[in-house]
Recover the amino acids of this structure.
């Protein structure tokens, strides 16, 4: 590799880091109630920053990647991200709001290294998967209020989780979880209802 080529690559990397840092600074300035680690990657078009809805007291831990694509050639669905007040996004979480909306209710938490995916490519035998349009039959992910998603979970398009529910660590969710239930597994299934205080005290 020539010196000129090496310098060009280094310059491109420095420009990317500077752009990401500037974007993160702008997002934090627009949302003063947001606590966002300096390692978080925001992959959001500058002109679409105003479409982010981030509540007060939201905490985003190190090494998260947050992708928001409002308009894509792969889908007619709008990409958007909404995070409610006092929500915690733990280390290494990947939020991909493209081809659908991700809505996270107030007081919720997403555990370490989980992925939340609003849309997937269609799958057609013999055709290149990543060149195909996104499947619009199941899109978006919605978490209610006070939802706890354990570490290393995957929430797939079409997932809806009701208020006060809990997803066990390592689960893959692709359906509707009613309010007040504990689900787990691959694919996730109902384990039991969230116990009441009276049940715990008895």
């Amino acid at each position: 590799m020539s010196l000129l080529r090496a310098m060009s690559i280094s310059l491109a990397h420095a420009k990317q880091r500077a752009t990401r840092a500037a974007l993160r600074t702008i997002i934090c300035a627009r949302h003063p109630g947001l606590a966002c680690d300096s390692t978080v990657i925001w992959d959001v078009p500058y002109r679409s920053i105003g479409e982010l809805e981030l509540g007060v007291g939201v905490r985003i831990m190190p090494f998260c990647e947050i992708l928001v694509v409002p308009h894509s050639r792969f889908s007619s669905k709008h990409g958007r991200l909404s995070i409610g007040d006092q929500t915690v996004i733990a280390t290494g979480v990947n939020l991909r709001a493209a081809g659908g909306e991700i809505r996270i209710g107030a007081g919720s938490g997403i555990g370490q290294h989980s992925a939340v995916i609003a849309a997937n490519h269609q799958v057609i035998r013999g055709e290149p998967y990543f060149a195909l349009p996104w499947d619009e039959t199941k899109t978006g992910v919605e978490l209610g209020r006070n939802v706890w998603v354990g570490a290393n979970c995957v929430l797939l398009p079409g997932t809806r989780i009701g208020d006060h529910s809990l997803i066990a660590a390592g689960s893959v969710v692709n359906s509707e979880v009613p309010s007040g239930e504990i689900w787990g597994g691959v694919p996730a299934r109902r384990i039991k209802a969230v116990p009441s205080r009276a049940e715990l005290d008895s």
